[in-house]
Design brief:
With 286 residues, the chain is α/β, with parallel strands linked by helices. 27% of the residues lie in helices and 32% in strands.
């Protein structure tokens, strides 16, 4: 389950044929779900369990019901009070991503080099495929001394990973001040000089340029700032957080910005195929 680290208040159950699950998952993320789970349902169907905060747009969620596509949406149900932090911690363990070991601060060190990440309310613990894919591609693309931009830094995992692997300078940007505070705590845990800004991309100085940028954002979050992100990078942009079914949309926007795909990686998690790409400036498009 990919989650945004806020406490859920409501649960909405959707039942649909397996072929509709990827599309519905993308729709639910765009509507602000805090997390998704899948379970088998009678009749070779799939039940999607979508968790939402108190202020969820239920009117829009209900519109996902579609008799023609055999999609059913149940009424929201209150989520029972649970110790979410305790459950979250119980499910985390050290893991290796590329050449980096990643662990929460409450787990013993399994090896080096390592990143110590406690996500708290910010996304990016390494438990979701998009974070792992981003971190793997970042390690492959990074050159010693690179200036790196981590857009939507969340827990700071990607910016700190870049510094651990030899980046010369890295800036983590996130519009959510809670995420930036969490990234600052992880910066202290790892003793890395990650520069942080609670801002949007537009707030950076006009002349700010980076060798490499990484953006682990859902597609609807990426597209509004995609052009500015491409403009600020000299070599490559690593994007993650989009589903395989959204490749065509990403392709169209990338071509319009003079970017081409140099490499793609993907991983299936909870029935969804999540993707990440290295996009480079296409000299022939200039």
């Amino acid at each position: 389950m990919r989650t945004r680290e806020r406490r859920p208040s409501w649960l909405v159950r959707l039942a649909a044929p397996a072929g509709e699950v990827e599309r519905l998952s993308a729709e639910l993320w765009s509507l602000g779900t805090l997390g998704l789970e899948e379970a088998a349902a009678p009749g070779n169907r799939v039940e999607l369990r979508a968790y939402f905060a108190e202020d969820a747009p239920y009117t829009e969620v209900r519109k996902l019901a579609d008799a023609a596509c055999a999609v059913e949406v149940a009424e929201p149900a209150r989520v029972a009070e649970r110790d979410w932090e305790r459950e979250w911690r119980a499910g985390l363990a050290p893991r290796r991503i590329g050449r980096l070991w990643l662990r929460p601060s409450f787990c013993a060190r399994p090896g080096t080099p390592e990143l110590v990440i406690d996500p708290q309310q910010a996304f990016g613990s390494g438990e979701h495929a998009t974070t792992r894919l981003s971190l793997e591609l970042l390690q492959e693309e990074l050159r010693a001394g690179d200036r790196v931009l981590d857009l939507g830094t969340g827990s700071g995992i990607l910016g700190l990973g870049a510094l651990t692997c030899g980046a010369g300078w890295t800036l983590g940007v996130d519009a959510d001040p809670v995420a930036v505070a969490n990234a600052a705590e992880n910066r202290a845990r790892n003793a890395r000089p990650l520069a942080l800004a609670a801002a949007t991309l537009d707030a950076l100085a006009e002349g700010a340029r980076f060798d490499l940028a990484v953006a682990n954002l859902l597609l609807h979050e990426l597209l509004p700032c995609f052009g500015a992100l491409a403009h600020r990078t000299r070599r490559a942009v690593i994007v993650s957080g989009f589903l395989a079914s959204e490749r065509g949309v990403l392709d169209a926007h990338a071509r319009a910005l003079g970017l081409r795909c140099a490499r793609e990686a993907s991983e299936v998690q909870s029935g969804d195929r999540w993707c990440a790409r290295v996009l480079v400036h296409d000299a022939s498009a200039r």
